[in-house]
């Protein structure tokens, strides 16, 4: 993993950590002032919605298939899969990070519910970076 990928991977993990999600000051450090998110619910959130008293709901999550896609100088797209054991679903995630005043800040984020969620009554799951379709060979 190259240095930029390591830095952005760590930042993505940081904003998913329960201790960061519940601490508004920590979330404010990660999010750019123009930050907005299209949540997997279809609701649009802005920085002001994420930096609130009491913080955000903490989640038990893991991340896999992390990739970095440069868009321009100081602007990158990251993509990954997220297994959210708190909400019992898997999502495909994308983020746009910008290098602002010498540090990477999250400017945009989107979560899309992935096929094959592991909630009760469905088949398939994301495990160890692969998708198990739930079929038997």
Walkthrough of the structure:
The chain is α+β, with helices and mostly antiparallel strands and 137 residues long. The chain has one domain (3-132): Roll (Nuclear Transport Factor 2, Chain: A). 21% of the residues lie in helices and 45% in strands. The protein has helices at residues 3-16, 18-21, 24-30, 47-50, and strands at residues 31-38, 44-46, 61-72, 75-84, 89-100, 103-113, 125-127, 130-132. The relative contact order is 0.17. Mean pLDDT is 79; it is low at 119-137.
Overview in brief:
This protein is of the alpha+beta class and 137 residues long. The chain has helices spanning 3-16, 18-21, 24-30, 47-50; strands spanning 31-38, 44-46, 61-72, 75-84, 89-100, 103-113, 125-127, 130-132. The protein starts with a helix and ends in a 5-residue tail after the last strand.
